[in-house]
Amino acid sequence: MFKVLLVDDEVYVRKGLLELIPWESLKLSIVGEANNGAEALDMITQLEPDLVITDIRMPILDGLDLIRSVNEHAGLDLIFIIISGFHDFKYAQQALRYGVHDYILKPIDEEEMTAALRKLSYAMGRKRIAALTNEDLTTSAIMEALVQENLQAEDAEPYAAALGLEGKSGFLYAVTEIHAGVRDKPATVKQFQEALHSLEEGGAGIPVFEQQPGTFGILLSTDGITGGHGGLMLHLEQLRAALSERLDTGLSLYAGDPVDTLDHVHRSYAEANEAARHKYAEHTGVIMYSDIKDKPLYVFDMSPVLANQLIMQLEEGNKKDYQETVNRMFRLFHEQRFTPQAVAGSLSRCMTGIIGVMKEMDGNEEEILRLKELAERRHGHWNLQMLEEHFLQAIQEAAEYIARLRKEHCLGGIKLVKRYIDTRYRENISLKSIAAEFYMNAVYLGRLFRKTYGIYFNDYLLELRIQEAKKLLRQSDLRMYEIAGRVGFQNADYFVTQFEKLEQISPSEYRNMLIDKE
């Protein structure tokens, strides 16, 4: 398998490529996704991909600058493919100067992209097989050559000698997937090999091939394993348990069918990876191809009805309901045998809808980006339980943020209402008329006003009007009915009654008191 890094600031483009292109059949494995060139540069150093597919226009560090930076570092032998929405010849010309393998325009044509990648994968495979004559040949390189489907029967003997498998007549390829936690670093090839070497029976002689970080292919000899299918399953389960104990982490093992000769190992390899696609559909730590080969898988996203229901429950802040919906979703993934890609697509649909709600509520871009990154965090090596726990954590954080946004909106709305009252109290307004003006329920508005300002709406309005009336009594000789009209009272007698209620003195007495003082 050749390792591929996708680089594009548009997450939908990256996810589209993940879904559209048959990566496994092309002997390509996506080992990482980057939002920009700077992030990609760090990931290239860590992941050491064989191929980088990048956009040109990106923030921080664009695609051409990324390629130039990589070319300036000695020892980095990478192949680049550019995808771009820009038809300008100068971009393609500059890309060719940097030695870019191909320049593909958006929107991406699935057939064109697949054909280009198939041709490139074949060329890389030929190059790698040619390197098998090198004396410094590594076990990983031999293993990778074995699974490329172009090993001839007459070439099997030198491969067997190089792998220490001379005289063996049966082989089985298995994929070992290490379920590292969110904060755990994936196990390295060295760590995995050390765990194998520590096994009591023949662990040191098992060839290892790193398919992608955290996922290792192993080539087992079936000589000496008796008991047919049951004996083979027991052997694999014991191997899985021993490795899990030594690595101190969860681990699953997916096995192809045994083959007689090394030139057929590619078949067992394909079957093992097909078995891995059933990881969410089975509850066992060892999945054998012979047990699942006739079981269908669900390859589409889940119904949008369930996703919309989850989003609505998050908006309503009903924790018990959205937790139950998440549980139902994951039961569905297991019972209907969703592929890992279908599960990822379904969860992506949910998170896209949730993030859309946050944007509609004018959520903070940094907070939205943080939750987006949390949702997009790579989870390819997790089992279904780990994935459910992570997803539930992500949507709980989203629910809490949506609740904060709703509270801020309510406070912002009530401030507008108060400002409206402060400027219009002289008019004939009421709680009902204001609620209609702001498209709110009158009862809800009254409760919200009291909760926010610690006073009933009517009391606040009366206080504003009486304070203005006192000002007019002090500064003018207007008659009582004139003052009443100016401060929003339709009836002079009612004005007098309310004034006395609040000030414990009539308006006339208040004015006369001022005159007497003078």
TrEMBL record:
Any one GO biological process: phosphorelay signal transduction system
Alphabetical UniProt keywords: Cytoplasm, DNA-binding, Phosphoprotein, Transcription, Transcription regulation, Two-component regulatory system
Cell compartment(s), UniProt: Cytoplasm
Chain positions with 4-aspartylphosphate modification: 55
Main location: cytoplasm
Gene3D superfamilies xrefs: 3.40.50.2300, Homeodomain-like (1.10.10.60)
GO cellular component, one term: cytoplasm
CDD domains per the UniProt record, alphabetical: REC_YesN-like
Superkingdom: Bacteria
Response regulatory domain sequence ranges: 3-121
Domain HTH araC/xylS-type, residue spans: 415-513
InterPro entries found in the cross-reference section: CdaR_GGDEF, CheY-like_superfamily, Homeodomain-like_sf, HptR, HTH_AraC, Sig_transdc_resp-reg_receiver
UniProt xrefs under PROSITE patterns: HTH_ARAC_FAMILY_2 (PS01124), RESPONSE_REGULATORY (PS50110)
GO molecular function terms attached to this record: DNA-binding transcription factor activity; sequence-specific DNA binding
Name of one Pfam family that matches: HTH_18
UniProt-listed PANTHER family: HISTIDINE KINASE-RELATED, TRANSCRIPTIONAL REGULATORY PROTEIN HPTR
Name this protein carries in UniProt: Response regulator
Source organism: Paenibacillus sonchi
Lineage of producing organism: Bacteria, Bacillati, Bacillota, Bacilli, Bacillales
